[in-house]
Design goal:
Helix content: under 10%
Shape: elongated
Number of strands: 19
Number of helices: 0
Largest sheet: 6 strands, mixed
Order of helices and strands: EEEEEEEEEEEEEEEEEEE
Oligomer: single chain
Low-confidence stretches: 1-6
Distance between the termini: 20 Å
Structural class: mainly beta
Length: 238
Amino acid sequence: MSLLVSGCVSASLASSTGPRAAGGRWSTAGRQEVHVGEEVEFDFVLLDATGRFLPPKGVADYCAAQIGEDRVESEPDENGHFRFRYRFDRLRAGEEVDVRAAAYAQVGSRDFVRVRGQWMRTQEGAVESDRPVARDTIALTGYEAEVELRLQQPPDELDRGSGLLRFRRLDGQVANVYIERRDRPGFSLSGPDGRGYYTVRYRPTGEQLNPTETTPVEFSVYDVGGRKHGAAMNLETP
């Protein structure tokens, strides 16, 4: 929910993850889920007293977001939106983190400067602090999807090295994953069990999944006789 800070100006923070309307790009839900390791794009805009988009020129100069212990700053783009990205590679499944974004009107020098990759606050008392204009927050909870596919044992033994796990994203990208080895990560293939089934297990990365809804997953493998076998699922990606 946006919070009024200065006059009649409020703000709205949206993300590329979380629940959203079909065909929509952004979610403004106050609570959302993010996959471990996912890179999320955020869109921050100012709103006037009627809730309409307010161009930031003359109102705010930059946006600063606090994500856990990390700070991210962004300038308005040509459309007056403040955009920034953040990869949640330190978030674990079940952990929660707030993304707190605020627009500021600069007063003299910026309150913070980035030096050798670290944000440093300028000397306090030397200049007046930048003035907050409006802010908004999204609470994110980490989750980690897991692929588990079962394949009935064929008459001939499987050629495990021919196995291919494929993820299809809505943006057209396809991620191919092969069986795990000592020198590379990948899926595990166990079995057959007492009921005659092989089991494929894999924990995908954020880049291999759609940000929301489902991600189609396909598994294919050949047996030693050259015949192809497969299994498929739609993996939930909230």
